Amino acid sequence: MKRQRVKYFSPEEKRKLLDFIQKYHANKLAKRSEFMYKLMFSTGLRLAETVGLNVGDVKDRTVLVIVGKGNKEREIPLSSGIREEIRSFLEWKSMNDEKVDPEAPLFISKKHRRVGSRCVQHDLDKWVHRAGLEGRYSPHALRHTVGFDLMRGTNNIRKVQEFLGHNSITTTQIYTHITKDQLRECAELLVCDPGCKYLVFICN
Q: Which of 122, 167, 194, 199 is 20 to 30 A from 70 in CA distance terms?
């Protein structure tokens, strides 16, 4: 069975994208995009879940409660870093005359309506191109990025499944492919002992 190819941001691409957008932080679109991407990179939210957020869903929260596919509820812990980003973004919204009451949309368009999925795709296309990244990325690539980051960091497919809210672990298995860098890391664990003709496995 052929493994599905998944588009995601490498750590370098993610940094390059966010660093580029940050240069335009005085621009409303840039501010919204930067925070949205940071939130998605920190939580693994689907696009529909992201644009559906209200201010009350994130304000003063340590855990994000999401009702996702199939009306399934999941809890996503919010790191101290993203909680600070949330606080800063809500402060910015208030200073720019955007509503911050609990039922107000977290992300709004130029017309002060809840931002739509197509708008997010259009904006991402623009930022990716201007940041000099190759290829086309869908907003779901941010969620895939979280999957690969978590798999590299934890090496625990069950943890990744629970964090992303996958019903089946088969869905999570797309993040288990072995990269060339990981193969090189494996090779570094094998050291040839000068006094021995055998390879020795180094266990940390």
A: 122
Summarize the chain as % helix, strand, coil (round to 5): 55, 10, 35
Would you kindly state where each structural domain of the chain is located, as residue ranges? 11-175
Catalytic residues: 46, 69, 140, 143, 166, 175
Longest dimension (CA), the chain: 73
Output the CA angle 5-10-132, nearest 5 degrees: 100
The span from the CA of 149 to the CA of 164, in Å, is 12
67 vs 165: CA distance, rounded Å: 10
pTM of the model: 0.85
pLDDT digits (tens, 9 = 90+) for 146-190: 999 999 899 899 999 999 999 999 999 999 876 666 677 777 777
